Amino acid sequence: MNLKLKVWRQAHADDRGTIVDYDAKDIPEEASFLEMIDIVNEQIIEDGGEPIHFDHDCREGICGMCSLNINGVPHSKERGITTCQVHMRKFNDGDTIWIEPFRAKAFPVVKDLVVDRSAFDRIIAAGGYVEVRTGSAVDANSVPIPKDKADAAFDAAACIGCGACVASCKNASAMLFTGAKAAHLNLLPQGEPEKDKRVLAMVRQMDAEGFGNCTNQYECEAACPKEISADVISKLNRDYAIASAREAVS
Amino acid sequence: MALNSAIPSGPIDMKWTDYKANAPLINPANKRKFSVIVVGSGLAGGSAAATLSELGYQVKCFCYQDSPRRAHSIAAQGGINAAKNYQNDGDSVWRLFYDTIKGGDFRSREANVHRLAEVSTNIIDQCVAQGVPFAREYGGLLANRSFGGAQVSRTFYARGQTGQQLLIGCYQALEKEVARGGVQMYPRTEMMDLVKVNGHAKGIIVRNLQTGKIERHSADCVILASGGYGNVFYLSTNAMGCNVMAAFRAYKQGAYFANPCYTQIHPTCIPVSGDYQSKLTLMSESLRNDGRIWVPKSADIAAKLREGTMRAADVRDEDRDYYLERKYPSFGNLAPRDISSRSAKEACDEGRGVAKTGLGVYLDFRDSIERLGADTIKARYGNLFTMYEKISGEDPYSMPMKIYPAVHYTMGGLWVDYNLMSNVPGLHVLGEANFSDHGANRLGASALMQGLADGYFVIPSTLPSYLVNETPGSISTDMPEFKEAEEKVTERLDGLMKVGEKGKRTVDSFHRELGLLTWDKCGMSRSKEGLEEAIDKIPQIREEFHENVRIPGSAGALNMELEKAYRVQDFIDFAEMTCHDALNREESCGGHFREEYQFTEDDPEVQSGFTNPGEAKRRDEEFMYAAAWEDKGPGNKPELHKEDLNYEFVKPSVRSYK
Predict the structure, then answer these.
(1) Which of A180, B26, B488, B583 is deepest in the core (most CB within 10 A)?
(2) Same domain, A237 and A123
(3) Chain B residues 595-634 within an 8 A CB cutoff of chain A
(4) B340 φ, ψ to 5°?
């Protein structure tokens, strides 16, 4: 199939950037979306140009490195998958495809479609962990965890930290990401002792990074490749309110 | 140089205990003065960095990805083994040790493997305490399953995302230490070379991938946890960025590379569909529990299936060859990974392959859907069927899946002793990057176990043995060794950019050519003739690469073509070394098959009915050693050093899957 691409090109962080047109010719419909860009890049390189830079690594939907807004939607409009899992057979011959980076103040563009998502690492560093020194753990079966609780924690833990939630949100809020980690750990007995400290620190870090507020539109839930429920946001709000109240009176 | 594996004396089950009781300690006030470089942030590197920082060392950790959470450990699906015996089904440390030794086809080191089995139980405790959401039963206790043909249920799992959940636990521990100031994290930073001072590993030269800047980092020791080299084959289940450069640069600096020809081929991947393909996707092996593997009996029918003039469902039963069930009646479709992979290749080599490219076999659920109903199959494999449908565009409920083997894991790696230190003092190697625990083949669910064992529990106890003789802080990046190493890196990059400016062929086209050759001649099945051919051809690829590779852009900025170029440059040299190793190993063992060494009608094992003609023939008397290769400079054959493997506690036996 043949396609028209409209791709965001930006030489470096301080460059203004612009949309550039490319023809993607003879693309096999079995190819993945990123393989389609590989083919276009091979052509660009052979023609003496600089290839389109984009982040990617595992190409099987789990590392969270690939990003891209495809026709305005993070990871494409198909539900529950990452960009690397999008296949060309979902497009039609002659289609025009817009390819842009994830856009958010807290995710500055590095080059072309590559953005800096290190703000997410700093939110985790603020409190997204259980403080347990290696070697100090008790026997794994000494604390039974009801299956429903373990499953709920798991649903939240499925987050791959890709940032689609932020990119889809008109406020560039990171509440789904932060809420998912807080829910994962706060739901488990292991995470209970640090619950208050965790949500206060993570939310403050999130604000400091320049992410916006949540206004309950749930675009994030629709864009999340792991289909994490926006319920984690309500839980984060509840846990945060309780922690703030406790902090105020302590 | 003689290889000293530094295995402690004493009975196998007391070696690690005695070692720890007698190992030197460094007092807390002194630990603070020592600095450690960790290259890689996967299960091995991440757990080592976090744990060493908790102990008080100053740690610098490097990864090429944009965040340590993305290391390729994340992609492991199946599970992690541990000798907990929570199921009361007769498991024990000894049994896990024994299974791992046998699974490695008697080419791994007993003492290391026993230690691995011992610490496996601590790993599960640690991960659960971190909040890793392993599968649980209704009573709230941990669930287990049997994996990869094991007779006990010792595998802990987290849906199909065990690697992800373990890595996130490890990453969180790492970020906790980053916040505390114990670890300095350098994402998007790639190790370009190792720096030695007086023969000891004391630093690295890195490239900041975002700015292109070359930087020097010194420390009191260096830990490599940079993963495997599966991408030498171009197509593999590895992530796109996985590469051998860190380990290979250490090899160039004198570290021995052991058993590079031991690679693991996974039997159930989605077949290649065309030249544009960038990677292969693994389908969980659990599918083999209910799927039946077959190809048509005749090449004519196969041709019709490939051309699309006939449908798989229309092939009559008498025209189908369920070859695993035929050849291995007691294991059938669950035959071990290497046997099942090799049989698929044989069928395709006979012209009976079914994918468009001729390289694919059917994995058919027709009979189990008939027997159990589509709902049961959906409940068991729904997510895998959906994944397959997304990639291939075909519905596995109505037509059989197509699968083909692909490179998945590499057992070879830098040679290390019991302390996980290479023959270069101060250079330690963990996880898939070392060679020690899996021998010639790895058991399912053991890779995650080894990565975390090395990082959480082994290196924190063995590192002081080296550091105790060192003066902390005696190394500075102003030393001439660092200047020289940096200049060498700059020279290398300048050289590449100079060729790249005028060159015509893309880096990927070279990588593809190298990968195809390596896969063809040094993949599942090798012969002397084929390996010699590869050893002849690789220098030609190298020569053309150095004359005609195209690299746009500049070295002083984010340049992903340049990154690919220097990684492929090392893969070319590495492939040559690997072929030498494969050529030297005149036996069929574990995951690899040397065509000249197979059982024939003349062998007593065949006459007695123990095994079949055509099965892999191991040669213990001649080859029961780890082959550790020393670099002898450009254009020279590497030199072989042997570490004899002594089986004091387990008696080597011939595998039979008849």
Answers:
(1) A180
(2) yes
(3) none
(4) -65, -35
Q: Which of B67, B178, B240 sits opposite A161 (nearest CB)?
A: B67
CATH architecture for segment(s) B481-623: Up-down Bundle (1.20)
The domain B267-407: what is its CATH number?
Answer: 3.90.700.10
Q: Say whether residue A188 is in contact with chain B using an 8 A CB cutoff.
A: yes
Chain B CB within 8 Å of residue A45 CB:
yes
pTM: 0.97
Residue among A45, A47, A204, A227 with most chain B CBs within 10 A, to mutate: A45
Contact yes or no for B175 and A124 at CB 8 A? yes
B511, two tokens? 């990588």
- CA-based nearest residue to B185, from B156, B201, B199, B206: B206
Q: Is B594 a catalytic residue?
A: no
Distance CA(B581)–CA(B601), nearest Å, equals: 29
The C-alpha atoms of residue B186 and residue B454 are separated, in whole angstroms, by 21
Segment A28-76, tens digit of pLDDT: 999 999 999 999 999 999 999 999 999 999 999 999 999 999 999 999 9
The per-residue DSSP string of B68-132 comes to: GGGSGGGG--S-EE----TT-SS--HHHHHHHHHHHTTS-S-HHHHHHHHHHHHHHHHHHHHHT-
Report B:149-168 residues touching A (Cβ under 8 A).
158-159, 161, 163-165, 168
What are B60's strand-pairing partners?
Answer: B37, B184
Å between B544 CA and nearest CA of chain A: 16
What b/e string do you get for A140-155 counting C-beta neighbours within 10 Å, with b at 16 or more?
bbeeebebeebebbbb
Judging contacts by C-beta atoms under 8 Å, the chain A residues touching residue B273 are 28, 30
Same domain, A209 and A94: no
Q: Are residues A77 and A102 in the same domain?
A: yes
Last residue of a domain, one of A89, A111, A133: A111
What is the nearest CA distance from B141 to chain A, expressed in angstroms? Answer: 5
Task: Give me the CATH number covering residue A130.
Answer: 1.10.1060.10
Residue of B nearest to A183 (CA): B131
Q: Do A72 and A127 sit in the same domain of this protein?
A: no
- Pick the range with the lowest mean pLDDT from B121-135, B269-283, B425-439: B269-283
ipTM of the complex: 0.98
The domain locations on chain B are: 267-407, 481-623
Residue where one domain finishes, among candidates A78, A96, A111: A111
CB of B33 closer than 8 Å to CB of B467:
no
Of A55, A63, A147, the CB nearest to B140: A147
| Same domain (yes/no): A150, A85 | no
* Residue A29 lies in domain: 3-111
Residue B183 in contact with residue B49, Cβ under 8 Å?
A: yes
Same domain assignment for residues A128 and A243: yes
Give Rg (Cα) of chain B.
24
- The answer to whether the Cβ–Cβ distance between B176 and A131 falls below 8 Å is yes
* B494-539 pLDDT, tens digit each: 999 999 999 999 999 999 999 999 999 999 999 999 999 999 999 9
Task: Name the active-site residue from B109, B207, B288, B337.
Answer: B337
Nearest by CB to residue A50, choosing from B171, B176, B553, is B553
Flag whether pLDDT at B78 surpasses 90. Answer: no
Question: What is the distance of C-alpha B437 from the center of its chain?
Answer: 11
Measured CA to CA, the distance from residue A152 to residue B612 in angstroms comes to 51
Structural domain count, chain A: 2
Domain check: are A132 and A204 in the same one? yes
CATH number at residue A25: 3.10.20.30
Looking at the structure, do residues A121 and A35 belong to the same domain, yes or no?
Answer: no
Give the three-state DSSP class for B642.
strand
Residue A194, amino acid: E
